[in-house]
Amino acid sequence: MRVAVFSTKPYDEEFLLEANASDQHDLVFLEPRLSRATASLAAGCDAVCAFVNDDLGSEVLRILATNGVRMLALRSAGFNHVDLAAAADLRLTIARVPGYSPHAVAEHCAGLILALNRKIHRAHNRVRENNFALAGLLGFDLHGKTVGVIGTGQIGSRFVRIMAGFGCRVLAADPYPNDDTRLAGAEYVDLTELLAESHIVTLHCPLTPETYHLIDLSRIELMRDGVMLINTSRGALVDTTAVISGLKSGKIGYLGLDVYEEEADLFFEDLSDQLLNDDVFSRLLTFPNVLITGHQAFFTREALSNIARTTITNLSAFERGEGAIHQVTVDSLA
Ligand code: NAI
Do 96 and 110 sit in the same domain of this protein? Predict the structure, then answer.
């Protein structure tokens, strides 16, 4: 099958070519992000392979379908960026890659917590300048602290295990509690209790219309003073303006982000010789107690290998007329 692979980076090409060795799809690697302006590059392709910041709104899907595309293989677990109703109208099959490496994201989340707490990013800069003073680097023991995990699916439940290993008390909130998370040592409570009790709050739920700005001003008010807030899930789970207010007042003592609501225009590109036009993001960067990574939580060798293999499996199943193995439909939002 001829497949247009948008937002291709060298590492995508490497892992997809390796995974495609036996199935031999005709992969057309395209560097641009998928958008209204670039969608017609998929003309003549049966399928499109897209990543998290590609535009998969109704207009782009219509252009793809008009150009003969019948299937969309997402290289991501999240599918919040796809207009699923429009895809159904256009008879486009959508597949994703669930659980390609929950360890990768859970471990990165733990990394953000450790770095923020012990100020490792700041210590590294100091030592490189022969500044070995410790003032300003004081941290706290994770042991005995309460960690609140919002969303205990594949990633959240792995993360619970990691934090339990540190000797933390773990609280969890999820409309669908599971035994795996309980066995890992978490106690399910309602969101209000979780926010009020946790020293660290971390988000592992998907972005849906219900979870949009789940963390807003009113929920920040419920949190402990000096709370650590971590978001490795999707940017729009958090109202960034409200979080900035929380940082200014000291309510939020630490902020760790791997995702940002307006990341599509920033992340995955080297913009080091450009001025940033995003004033909200620029403000975030001014806080010493904010640590941001550019959507790299998934970025491990194991995850890229699994993403590539599942993507090729999805494409091959569709080509054989079996639909997609990890299909996403409007019902997936329910
Ligand atoms: P999953 O589908 O296994 O688990 C999500 C969990 O969230 C489910 O248990 C669900 O019941 C729960 N949930 C849904 N609505 C909720 C709500 N209102 N409150 C609390 N919990 C709620 O998904 P998985 O694989 O654990 O991934 C979670 C999210 O992580 C993805 O949706 C994606 O946005 C993000 N992600 C981020 C990556 C990164 O590189 N930063 C990489 C992969 C995923």
Answer: no
Say if residues 268 and 294 touch (Cβ distance below 8 Å). yes
Closest atom, ligand 1, to C-alpha of 155? 26
Same domain, 90 and 133: no
> Could you give the count of Cα atoms lying within 13 Å of 171 in the half-sphere of its Cβ?
19
Report the residue among 155, 161, 178 best suited for mutation to probe ligand 1: largest number of ligand atoms under 8 A from its CB.
155
- The CATH number given to whatever domain includes residue 14 is 3.40.50.720
pTM of the shown model? 0.94
In terms of domains, do 208 and 285 share one? yes
pLDDT digit string, tens, across residues 240-252: 999 999 999 999 9
Please report, in angstroms and rounded to a whole number, the separation of the first and last CA atoms in the chain.
31
Phi and psi at residue 180, to the nearest 5°: -55, -45
Catalytic residue at 193? Answer: no
Cα–Cα distance for residue pair 160/152, rounded to 1 Å? 8
pLDDT tens digits for 120-176? 999 999 999 999 999 999 999 999 999 999 999 999 999 999 999 999 999 999 999
Say if residue 134 is in the same domain as residue 265. Answer: yes
Strands 26-29, 2-5: pairing is parallel
Answer whether 256 contacts ligand 1 (Cβ < 6 A).
Answer: no
